[in-house]
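Hi F.,

I've been meaning to write this up properly since the lab meeting, where we talked about keeping a consistent format for the predictions we share between groups. The idea is simple: the sequence comes first, exactly as it goes in, then the structure tokens exactly as they come out, then a line or two of notes. No screenshots and no reformatting. I'm using this chain as the first example so we have something concrete to point to.
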Amino acid sequence: DRGNNTVCFPEMRRGNIGLCVATQIGRHSPYFHKLPGWASPEQAWAQTQGQLAWYRIMTEQREMTPIRNVAELDAHLDLWLNAPPCDDGTPYVVESRTQPAKLPIGFVLSLEGADSIVNLDYLERSYEDGLRALGPAHYGPGRYADGTDSVGPLHPAGKDLLKEMDRLGIILDVTHLCDETFWDALDIYEGPLWASHQNCRTLAPWNRQFADDQVRAVVERGGLLGMAFDAIMMVPGWTHLKSQPEDFQLKLQRICDHVDHICQLAGSAAHVCVGTDLDGGYGTEQTPMDLTSIADLQSLPDLFRARGYTDSDIEGFMYRNVVDFLRRAWK
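Output, unedited:
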């Protein structure tokens, strides 16, 4: 409504973005917190089911398509990589000689915060409905784990949750986990993990970010870190609702610093990818000055090339690292 958003289907297609992580979220917050939540897990579940219904409608309308296994991933990649471009540069599928159709955007369904999982039976139901990644916590204390701006160990229910995720093959998203819970989770969960939208605490201090030892731990587990383009995660000293991108002369190239830092810790460029978080409840008031649309991410290859990254490194960052990760996770 404010006209500051950066993400929509046409702009994703204009930016040649054919694969994303699509989020469900339903918070249970019976206590005061800066982010609202429902009074019961059942209400939170109902919210996530409304979101799932929307994704299904978008699938019926061929705006999106779920990616749940390697076969669907490979078929979707083949579709996008071999589709001819329209006059506006966006890829399309030829339905007939006179009526080209837009390509559906593939999505891996993820749950941000597990408050809505009423009990573990609901986790299996979610998997059957297409859920393939889950972050146990969001902001503050949660039912299963404690998240950003909170402290504490992984809850007993969280341990059971992780074991069931492991059994089902659901990817663990360690983004938003508080530090103690992060380490507990890595001790218990043995499956594939990523940090879907996460930058470096060394460069932008805040508990929401990862310290160097956490970055190394994700790398050692063969995981990925998806770079976030929220200004508060890109630069030090940002004040929420007060700072402006112009105050820091914040531009897209700043994300290269975070990528550089992770690559130095990892010893390669194989563990970074595009995370964005551009659907995270903010708009251009909190993004780099040269990012007014998600399509502007196509500026990144030239920025990385100027820093000496190879074409293979850049291809990995833009999509190949994610594809390779999913193939390993779903083998």
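Notes:
The chain is about 35% helix and 15% strand.
The chain has two domains: 1-191, 195-330.

If this format works for you, I'll send the rest the same way.

G.
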